[in-house]
Batch of 2 targets.
Target 1
Amino acid sequence: MASFVKLYVGEGQMLLPLPIGYHFIISSLPMAPPYILHLLSLLSLIAFTTSSNSNPNIIILPLSSLITKPPSSDPFQALKLAASASVTRAHHLKHHNSASKSSSLVTTPTFPKGYGGYSIDLQFGTPPQKSSFVLDTGSSLVWFPCTSRYLCSNCLFPNIDPNNIPTFIPRNSSSSRLLGCTNPKCGYIYGPDVQSRCPNCQPQTQNCSQTCPAYFIQYGSGSTAGFLLLENLDFPGKIVPDFLVGCSILSTRQPSGIAGFGRGKESLPSQMGLKRFSYCLISHRFDDTPENSDLILQTGSSGGAKTDGLSYTPFRRNPSGSNTAFLVYYYVTLRRVFVGGERVKIPFKFLEPDSDGNGGTIVDSGSTFTFMERSVYDLVAREFEKQLANYTRAKDVEAQSGLGFCFNIPGVSLTIPQFTLQFKGGAKMTLPLANYFSFLGDSKVLCLTIVSDGGAGPERTTGPAIILGNYQQQNFYIEYDLENERFGFRPQTCKKSA
């Protein structure tokens, strides 16, 4: 069971003086990770000053692949890293427990920069400062590396100097201010009970000087910690004032910020009141590339109008059980899975989530490979194996790559069964071969780019049973129609023409 670490910025018991008159109260400190102590030291040194488009309702941002080339000549290293990280992220999405409303621990799923993701640049502050963010529909808080003393532990990624990571500098922005504890936006993170999140403020007080508790975000491969700001989010021709954003001063394995696009109140779509957002993901190459596509944000209503050529399926109502963490996910109803025209008979309990969020399918831009619960994965892989019975399994490659189903291909042409996902309403996503099988370097081996955990499938899944990752979304135009509560897609080449 995770320990709770409570960090409060406010006036009261003084453990650590800050230059602007704020102090920290620490509870459960012996249970806290060691780097929380570094966080306190860093905070003591920080002071604050208190793409264009003709349609004003449309904002278009460049969207870049964020795949870090591994520092290894091992041809399997990139896929092994992606597979391992996808499984790790799936475990945290599936078993993600939200902190109690009285706690200052925020547990938000995220992922390291070391495997395939996609990034956008956003500008905050006055004058604006540009920061890079990983696009993540599986979490909600937007945060960036912050202050000149940002510390990133275990961030030895290729082409990244952990001692020279670009950061947001609050003192250089005239619009930057700490979030007050009684501000309703503090409740986005810590719940509506003001007294629980502001223990040093007297009930009904009008002059509470305590700030919103600092956040500590923990995820599978690392963590980040900092405090909350209100800041201007600056787009060409549009400024979003008093945007809630996290100022992280300490992270592990996270040299880039996160742009949370989930369903939480603190997410970018919620704070901006977006009606729709859409993207088209360029192909993964597992290397660094300057190519990019577009992320489109729509603030104006389109009524019930559909985008040309898109197939739609309704978003499911999020589970209403005890695990409120699942409320940030985008659930869709997957009805059927086909391999080569043959329907894979997946038990109903994996396709339909119960009230606690066990089972069902979510869409997640932050996962690389699609994750399937072991019982589901085995059914799908078995059907592929049946239809590819003339080819031998490459089990040595499976062990090296971390992927569960690979086979040797001959030096002649071969036919791979089509893979189709059919959603509620009849919308069918038939994936191109590159979205579900990958050649491993120069070897004559193909591997299924769907992952699962290594254990036997449980009788009843915990959390979402299927997580549709970004690898399977490549070269599809993807739309999240928030106004009409539906998910749309169509096949499309995402690479911009020269």
Note: The longest helix spans residues 77-94.
Target 2
Amino acid sequence: MSIEVRNLSKSFVDGHMAVRGVSFELGEGEMTAFLGPSGGGKTTILRMIAGLEKPSGGEIYISGQRVDHLPPQERKIGVVFQNYALFKHMNVFENVAFGLRVQKQRPDVIQARVRELLRRVDLQGLEGRFPDQLSGGQRQRVALARALANEPRLLLLDEPFSAVDAQLRKELRSWVRKLQQDLHITSIFVTHDQQEALEIADRVVVFRQGQLEQIGTPEEIYDSPDTPFVAAFVGEVNRYRTVIKNGVTDLGVLQFPAGNVPEGQEVVVIVRPENVELMPWSAAADIQGIVLATTFLGEFYKVDLELADLVRITAHVPKALGGALREQERVALQIKATKIFNVA
């Protein structure tokens, strides 16, 4: 089941343009993450696909069928909201069975389908509990089972883990990813958490101010950002302006990504902290720096450095090296640029 969005836009009565001419295609069976800051348009696009918001312009296709004129119940879409939206007066079984009862399915069909879904979401034995008797993670799994009850052809998840703590969030996204792969259901996952998007998705769509900035695999988004915004929003980056002459910047010789290096014009060089390598100081080193501070972050040390012309840069280094560094220590550096952007 594929999704195609053509020139989609949405403006509200106050004149605010939430989505501006967005177009993309998503493949069958993929988990796609909509990523971006608040106000980027990702939830509005999700709601238009679901039929909960009417587009101001553009077209939406599901498996080649145009659906933007259809009511939500005719699109065969399951939606999981961030606030669970469970019926408090219904127990777990009845919450999951709700859509099946609306469809007037036979009692034996409802019984079998609900029990199968509760097994899939690891809630068997909790059929008789009410939402206020469940943990946050359990409530979210009930919401997911209910969204899957009518066998939707598309699953939409709107920041479904925002109400749970960090450790449970990590467990739930791994669990949802496995369930999505097992069911092979095309899914869209809205999040503002870059790590969540990179971990859970086959492809990531980055939005900003109602426009699509980039679409690609997690690796493409992280390693080959198309715009300065994507580079800065996804992961941590160092950036500085420089002019490249004969392949050399004013900081010294950098390792550049494949492709042409702009010669003689001002550019913004993007460097990820893990691409800054520290070595023992040498007077002959091409790039030298002074350690300003080190911060232990569990898997690595974050090292803040000052280079030539008071340029500040951050490196992520292994624990064995980071723990041995001292403030004001002089070091040599090798730097690999992630991306070069021309200054507009």
Note: The chain has two domains: 3-231, 236-272+285-342.
